[in-house]
Input
Amino acid sequence: IPEYSLDRDCQTLSRHVLQQFSDFSTQAQDVSAIMNRVALAAKLVSRRLSKAGLMAGALGFTGETNVQGESVKKMDIYANDVFISVFKQSGLVCRLASEEMEKPYYIPENCPIGRYTLLYDPIDGSSNVDINLNVGSIFSLRQQEGEDLDGEAKDLLTDGDRQIGAGYVLYGPSTVLVYTLGNGVHSFILDPSLGEFILAQENIIIPPHGSVYSVNEGNYWQWDESIRDYIRYVHRHEGYTSRYSGALVGDFHRILLQGGVFLYPGTEKNPEGKLRLLYESAPLAFLAEQAGAKATTGFERILSVVPDKIHYRTPLFIGSTEDVDLVESFIQDRV
Ligand code: AHM
Ligand code: MG
Output
């Protein structure tokens, strides 16, 4: 039985999204319909994850390799297809672009009237999936700009300030949805008995400094000396603590609520790092800035980066302003 505290008015996600708009314009209606669809995808993925260990054929690898050169998990495909199927009938989204698909997926029946493109990472932190640890989904919403005549989606290769909405779903002990439409960052918790996302926190602000630094230190010898200098700095100063879960959504969520910094620098083998701009770094950067914090490549605001391909990667430093500034000062001092 849900026992909400009496001072909470059980605001649902759909009502909250509508209230982000001052009118009932077409855009307000479209975006709330899209957010409802994202929430439906989240519920479907959440339900599957909660039972995956009991189901035959839900976990493990498919044997395929995706466009990123990574082994594909069955759950990656399931979640990728869930987003496609919930948006197929939406009439709103004309294209979907995801980590798991080399080229965007076109929904011909929604084109050209579909006025939006959804970019997403269906399962972020896939290495956690088979061992029942937290994973996430990340999404970014863009307005269709001009026509995509050659089907190459070149119009998506623009900066992150063009996002009209972004967010993620964290599948943890509870399923949490965090979103922004450019007017603050808000979080919702799925009440499985109601099948509704209920408001948990509005206008979240990331503290200017936090004790956590979150990075895969296994890459230490592959980093640039400036990043090693920063890590040596936190090792030598009191008050820092390390947390790294292998799922960006979970690591970012901790920082959203408690402050700190997440780092995925370039390495010798992959100078651009691992994380993809359009459906991983840019949506989280939009959330970070809306929560009063920062996201950079070390040199440039993540939201200003213009990619040259859909699966473009960039180093990512994101979190509390003072902590990101400190990382940046190490990087820029070396140049
Ligand atoms: P994925 O979307 O294929 O799971 O890759 C992204 C994930 C992030 O969630 C996480 O921060 C990072 O990759 C972990 O990578 P590594 O194992 O190199 O530290
Ligand atoms: Mg990912």
Q: What stands out?
A: Residues 70, 99, 121, 124-126, 216, 246-248, 274 surround AHM (ligand 1) (CB under 6 Å).
